[in-house]
Each structure stands twice: as structure tokens, then as C-alpha cells.
Amino acid sequence: MRTGIKIYLTASSDPNEIVAFLLKDIPAGCDYDLYIFDPNFNYAASQNSGNSDERIYIQVQATGTWYVVVVPYSGYDDNANYKLFVGDAWQNGTTGWRSTNMTFNFTYSNVGTILPYQIFDLSNDASIPDTAVVQYIQIDSTGVGSWSGQHKYIYSPQTRVRYETYPGLDYVLNIPENTLSVKQQWGISTGIEHLFTPTAKWTPNIYFAYKYIIQ
Question: Domain spanning 3-88: which CATH class is it, in words?
Fold first, then answer.
């Protein structure tokens, strides 16, 4: 038994405008496949084995009526529903503000220098989707003591580039949008231009805004 729906889609030349076709919650003991036909009846198929999710991501290049068809390859359960999703592939998310659990100590002797990097490891963070890519990063100025002219640095091993903020800003500048994976071992450091107390310490919090492919 085949089931299907029709949906009207508009062509886009923007590579970030991807449509996701997802077939999920296939009943146990069944193997359903997913087919997508464009207005010219060209098709794409997802044919994973067993009741694994079926996923197709398409940049729509033909305006008109598209057809989404679910085909039982083996087994069929009239009493169990599956889920079929069609929509924007990219979703927005954030890590929220997080403590880095780092401490950077400022003294008169290290004013004007970049302090040794410490690692903020998100590479195995299960709360972040594997496909998450950075939209922007903020690093705050939480700490004890008084200083000014602080530059904050974050290093991406993916690009081997050190990104930074201007003094007084929390936003990290020149991040290549939708390129850097969030799940990296980020290097964080800082430097200050002026210290107004004998010592001070910076205990940064960090915020990642990202987008990810829905699965």
C-alpha cells in the first residue's frame, strides 16, 4: 500500500534554502521507503534498511507541485502511524550562556600580553546537534577586579584562525557565518591594556548561536 501527498514548492537559488523530507517512526518490523518527485517527475529516493528514518534534503530548483510518496518495501502495519515531515531543513538553536569554568588572572606583569590559551571543549557535547554551524559567538566580561581595554580571543582548530572582540564588545568579530562547526575544542584567551587594581581575574561565560539540519 502506497501513500503520498502533494505540496507546492517555489524554486530558490539560495544554497541555504534547503527543504527536508523526513520519514520517521516507521513501525517495528516494517521497512518503508521515501520517494520525492519534482514537477517534471524526476525523483530522489531514500531506501534505508529496516525501520531506520528516511531522509532527503533538496534545494528546490523547479517551481510547482512536488509529490511525496511512502512505499512499504517490506511489512505494513495498519495500526501504527509513522511521521512525515516536509519543511525548512535548517533550524535555529543556541547553547545559551555557559560558564567556561576558566579563570584568567591579570597582574601588572602581564598587561599588554595575550595570556595562554585554555580549551573550551564542545566536541562531544550531546546537547548540540552534530550538524550545528556557528551563526555568532559572544564572550562576556565577568570577573573580579577592574581593568579596561580587554581583547577576547577564540581560536577555531577547524580554520586555524584566531577571532577576537574589540575592547568593550562581547560579540566575536569576523566569524564566517554558517561555516564553523560548533562541536570543536575552542581555544580561549585574552589580553588587557590597563589594570586598575593590583590583581584581577576574568571568568568568562560564552554563548553560541547556531543553525542545524533538522533530522
Answer: mainly beta
